[in-house]
Amino acid sequence: MLQKTERTLSDFNSQLKLKGFNAFQIESDGAETRVYSRKDFYKICLTTGKSIINYSDKSYAQEGTILFFGNPHIPYSWETLSTEYLGYTCLFSEDFLHRGERTESLLQSPLFRLDGTPILQISEQQRVHLNDIFEKMIAEQNSDYAFKDDLIRNYIHLIFHEALKMKPSENFIHHKSGASRLTTVFMELLERQFPIETPSAPPQLRTPQDYASSLSVHVNSLNRAIKETTGKPTSAHIAERTLAEAKALLQHTDWNISEIAFALGFEYPTYFNNFFKKHTGTNPKTLRAGIGRLQE
Question: Tens of pLDDT along 40-62?
């Protein structure tokens, strides 16, 4: 039974990555709502029930029907308190949505921004209307219509615009300082770039500017927050995590040095060698040879 469940989840994630989109009823999907790659996918949920949602450093106590927007760059978790929890979920990649127009401004809207709020309280009339949109998305993804992806993108945009006309929920339990909040999300986002699974899929974010852009803040604001909270600059945290991943790849894979360099996002192997020697005092080849001798 466990192997069957694992195969089902693997198939679900493989299909999701291939298509870049999936929509389903929460009551009928089982474990698939909880297992997917948040590094890649945005999430919209329309749910009726009682729950506590932890989003970044805030916790929201919710009851009734809500519309939730999950950003893959911001950590969140969901604790369901109801014995029955009904609704719909759709997952989509940024690449899937970017095939349409006017997408970037919507993903930078208060629905997904760090300083915004991801939860909206929904009236019964709004619930009926949004239910209809989700049901149309589900029906469309199972159809043979040649342009169904375009139609699904239109449905997602329609949900965006319906949400932007509503007032966001302010029913949150606690709120850290701005610097602490930004640091928490940066550290989570940094960790989500790893582990590296294949040489052909390097981290999408590599520089402080990359992280600042992803979090919709100015790079100077990010640097100030990180330094104030941790005592170290943003670049130091990125370098430390990259170095730790490099050592793991040298020890646990048979990739050559060039493959590891490209996997970590370095344009040339010499750049990786210089980076590694600067932080360790030795080069990757020497370190790998030393690890090999210790394991013999």
Answer: 688 999 999 988 887 766 778 88
Domain end: 164, 188, 216, which one? 164
The helix-helix angle for 219-230 and 178-191 (nearest 10°) equals: 100
Mean pLDDT, range 252-277, rounded to an integer: 94
Whether residue 19 has pLDDT greater than 50: yes
Mean pLDDT of 166-182: 64
For 218, the domain range is: 178-295
Looking up residue 84, the CATH number of its domain turns out to be 2.60.120
Q: Which residues pair with 88 in a beta bridge?
A: 25, 46
Say if residue 76's pLDDT is above 80: no
If you write DSSP's letter for every residue of 115-164 in order, what string do you get?
TS--EEE--HHHHHHHHHHHHHHHHHHTS--TTHHHHHHHHHHHHHHHHH
Whether 169 shows a pLDDT value over 70: the answer reads no
Q: Do 258 and 271 meet the contact criterion of CB atoms below 8 Å apart?
A: no
CB 243 within 8 A of CB 253: no
Task: Determine if the pTM surpasses 0.85.
Answer: no
Q: Which of 109, 142, 164 is the last residue of a domain?
A: 164
Number of domains into which the chain is organized: 2
* 117 domain-assigned: yes
Task: Give 189-237 as a DSSP string.
Answer: HHHTT-S---TT---S--SHHHHHHHTTS-HHHHHHHHHHHHSS-HHHH
